[in-house]
């Protein structure tokens, strides 16, 4: 009897037809799941790019959420939607959107170096901070950068307050000088960092990515995940019984949900089952965030 596998996305059905051992490596693949809040974030970012580039005081956006809850995935999706391209003249690359990650040991000089590296420019020959900054801004204009993405903004708090203020001042200056919007992403600490600079804080509109709860929206998310897991039978992940168990085990974090479902799929397939059950969710190799914290705290006390 041929299974229709109508619960699967068409692109996933051919994978589900493979032998079990050949499918095991597919469950952990990175996937874009276009849930409502992520699509709203992308739309807001696209609106900023379309309306704020070139303005004297452009508006900015701060995507805030707990760690492992999809912020960087949204940024990567936006970058794929706006890839760099070669100018018509063929003499340079055009970066509509430039992306960098705030390091934990950031300084003004290191941040300029990150900008230059993202632009594909050599850094070694330009060591003076002022010259490095001037070169970064010049190249950003030449490459027609219209938006700056700064991921992991909360890392800014790792340095002393004086350095934090310098970096925030640099972000404000870049936005004003280049007339481009800035989209920053980070945890709650990113918002606390912005509060050190009143002018900058007022220009950043927060966009929250909260924990997932046991509700219909999470059910739709889990149904989307189920459609790309190459298991031949439907699991009903979005229904209340499994949904509540998944949310409980993952602290409602989308990154943890992805890892749990991958581990549960492998567990099910390893015992010849073509769907995920409550037993797979509980018995698979996934370690819940709360359990990992308990282990770490126990080790630190010993």
How would you portray this structure in words?
With 302 residues, the chain is of the alpha/beta class. 51% of the residues lie in helices and 10% in strands. The strands form 2 sheets. The protein has a 5-stranded parallel beta sheet with strand order 4-5-6-1-7, sandwiched between helices. The longest helix has 18 residues. It is globular. It starts with 9 loop residues before the first helix and ends with a helix. The model has no long low-confidence stretch (mean pLDDT 92).
Question: SSE layout and pairings?
Answer:
Elements: H1 10-16, H2 20-23, H3 36-51, E1 60-64, H4 71-81, E2 85-86, E3 93-94, E4 97-101, H5 108-118, H6 129-142, E5 147-151, H7 161-178, E6 182-186, H8 188-194, H9 198-203, E7 204-208, H10 216-227, H11 240-250, H12 254-270, H13 278-283, H14 289-301
Parallel strand pairs: 1-6, 1-7, 4-5, 5-6
Antiparallel strand pairs: 2-3
Helix pairs in contact: 3-4, 5-6, 11-12
**Percent helix among the residues?**
40-55%
Number of helices: 14
The total number of structural domains is: 2
Distance between the termini: 57 Å
> Low-confidence runs (pLDDT<50, min 5 residues)?
none
The CATH topology of the largest domain turns out to be Rossmann fold
**Pattern of helices and strands:** HHHEHEEEHHEHEHHEHHHHH
C-alpha Rg, in Å?
A: 22 Å
Based on secondary structure, the structural category is alpha/beta
């Amino acid at each position: 009897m041929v299974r229709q596998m109508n619960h699967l996305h068409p692109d996933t059905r051919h994978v589900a037809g493979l032998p079990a051992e050949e499918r095991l490596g597919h469950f952990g693949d990175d996937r874009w799941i276009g849930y409502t809040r992520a699509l709203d974030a992308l739309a807001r970012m696209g609106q900023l790019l379309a309306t704020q580039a070139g303005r004297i005081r452009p508006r900015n956006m701060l995507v805030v959420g707990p760690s492992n809850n999809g912020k960087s995935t949204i940024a990567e999706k936006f970058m794929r939607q706006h890839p760099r391209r070669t100018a018509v003249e063929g003499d340079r690359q055009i970066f509509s959107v430039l992306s960098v990650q705030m390091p934990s040991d950031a300084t003004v000089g290191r941040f300029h170096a990150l900008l230059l590296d993202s632009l594909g420019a050599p850094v070694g020959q330009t060591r003076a901070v002022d010259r490095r900054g001037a070169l970064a801004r010049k190249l950003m204009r030449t490459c027609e950068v219209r938006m700056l993405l700064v991921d992991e903004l909360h890392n800014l708090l790792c340095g002393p307050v004086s350095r934090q203020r310098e970096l925030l001042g640099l972000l404000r200056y870049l936005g004003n000088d280049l007339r481009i919007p800035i989209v920053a992403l980070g945890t709650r600490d990113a918002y606390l960092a912005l509060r050190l600079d009143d002018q900058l804080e007022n220009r950043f509109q927060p966009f929250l990515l909260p924990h997932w709860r046991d509700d219909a929206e999470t059910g739709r998310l889990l149904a989307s995940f189920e459609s790309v897991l190459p298991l031949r039978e439907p699991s009903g992940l979005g229904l209340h019984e499994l949904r509540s168990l998944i949310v409980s085990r993952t602290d409602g974090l989308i990154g943890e949900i992805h890892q749990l479902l991958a581990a549960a799929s492998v567990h099910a397939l390893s015992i010849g089952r073509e769907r995920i059950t409550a037993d797979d969710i509980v018995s698979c190799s996934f370690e819940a965030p709360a359990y990992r914290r308990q282990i770490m705290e126990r080790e630190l006390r010993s």
